[in-house]
Amino acid sequence: MPRHSTSPTRRVLQPHETLVEVASPLDRLDMPRNKAVRTLPDGLVCHRILASESRLETIGGGLRCRELVVDGSAVTRIADGVRIDYRLSARGCHRLKALPASLRAGIVDLRDCLALEELPLGLSPAFLELQGCTALGRLPDDLALRGGRLNLRDCALIDALPERGIVAQLDIAGCGRIDRVPEGFRVTSWIDVAGSGVTALPAHLDGIGLRWRGVPVDARIAFRPHELGIAEILGERNAERRRVMLERFGFEAFMTAAEAEELDADRDPGGERRLLRVVLDNDEPLVCVSVGCPSTGRRYFLRVPPTMTTCHQAVAWTAGFDDPADYAPLIET
Amino acid sequence: MPYENLTTFFGKPVEDVRSGMETWDVTRVVPRFRIEYDSEDSVPMLLGDYAALPGVEATEAIVIGFWQGDDSEGSSQQVVEALVTYSERFPNLRALFLGDIISEENEISWINQSDLSALWPAFPNLEHMQVRGGNDLALGRFEAPHLTALILESGGLPRRAVRDALAAGAPELRHLELWLGTEDYGGDTTPDDFADLFAGRLFPKLETLALRDCAYADDLAVALAKAPVLERITTLDLSLGNLTDRGAEALLASPAVARLSRLDLHHHFLTDATVARLERLGPSVDLSDRQEEEEYGGTIYRSIAVSE
């Protein structure tokens, strides 16, 4: 689709302006936050359509474009026959339910499309962003990724990756039901495995980077945290990485092994409570409150701000009270 | 520094791609994709225009210039995604410069890079990879079987990017150039980060080792002077940094340094006597651009060439 060689044409719609007539093809249609337009004219050809936060509801009519950006809009449906060559960005379109078959865009960004339950057949993007699509049940059988990124973070219902394809980056953090990376699915750079069902790096991914919700980690931190040593955790220079090491090792085990200083101790209906502190280099001290659940009897270790001095104050903070005097639970369940 | 945009790259003249062009002389001219501050275009759209032209499959080199437009925070992420998305149109790409951006357009330390890892599998024939700007730069784990030159220019190169570079599967690498920069702009490496490189365990074909613009140039010189890697390379470049006589003494005492064919130390804080001894050492030495120390309130400052 060559662009206009002489006079690039750009149409800008104000928030309350309607789109009555449009000379197609356009180079660019800018209509962010537009409240008046519900659908685009039939047969529109436009290189870039920027309609974030608009009230567009349906996109159809044989639209042809290179780039369509409808982030945060009211779009419910992008109909079959719509052609988007380069990029579709529909982040946070909470009502979006339907996408066109054979969507050929190389970049498809559908993050936080909460109502999206399925994807169409014929998708072959390089970058597919599905983070936070919590209603999405599965990926299409014929999904063919072409080398960029597959981001499935917190797509908790999805239970399997495509059998084939190649990506540089794979994010399956929070995908508790995904427990394997198929042999035919290549990942070249990194995989984020935090909270996924993957418990070891498969042989065909040997040597690639591991991440834990964005923080680069090694296989021991990700998969065998019990092998970490206290000195190693305390000696880690990178605060982000140390936070992940602590979380993986377990606050309780760490507090015990690091011989934490007891700042306070008392009792509540759940039993004994303790407030413990370990000093960390280049970071604020690690302070945790240890509490028991009055119903289940389980012990919990909760990290609290280092300014806490009593168990009561710390527990009040975890319940959202800055002033512990306001926190006086009548009943705990 | 750097003050001038490229005029040639990978042996050919560079020209800007404009929207609406209908032809491009692929065999003669290297395309550069960049926009102005107030441009309604974007680098991804220009790449799309170019990708649609006939014959661009023969493109061997691409230069990416200023991409931010009026979004001063804009990172290279969308540019990288566009390059990967259109990569099937450029199967013969051998050289890429991501960030031909000069001081007037955006200071080197303000350029926001991104995760470049998807570029490697998209362009498996890359021989020359050059990147300007260290903020948020990640190369990822990568295999680059034909890569001969890797150049990362910055005012502060993050350790993560250095680790990625040194872990690269790049058996053909001959020229490794890292502008390490200062802590003030995110350069958080130390000589320890180069242990495997200095021990000679990486890049069997390495010829030029350039660790430039280093704010701990003396420590680096001391660590390098006895490093086995010097037995294998021909050119050592410690230019643009804050080298003083302390680091130079270590280099002077190293038989391996004396056997190099070229030693580039320009932009330094060396005394005349040390300069004279280095000139007699053996290698062809660049000792130009001597700097003067500055003193404020009793503290001596020796600035590297490129920081902000």
TrEMBL record, chain B:
Task: Give the InterPro entries listed for this entry.
Answer: LRR_dom_sf, STM4015-like
Lineage top rank: taxon: Bacteria
Q: Which NCBIfam families match?
A: fam_STM4015
Name-wise, this protein is Cytoplasmic protein
Organism for this UniProt entry: Methylobacterium aquaticum
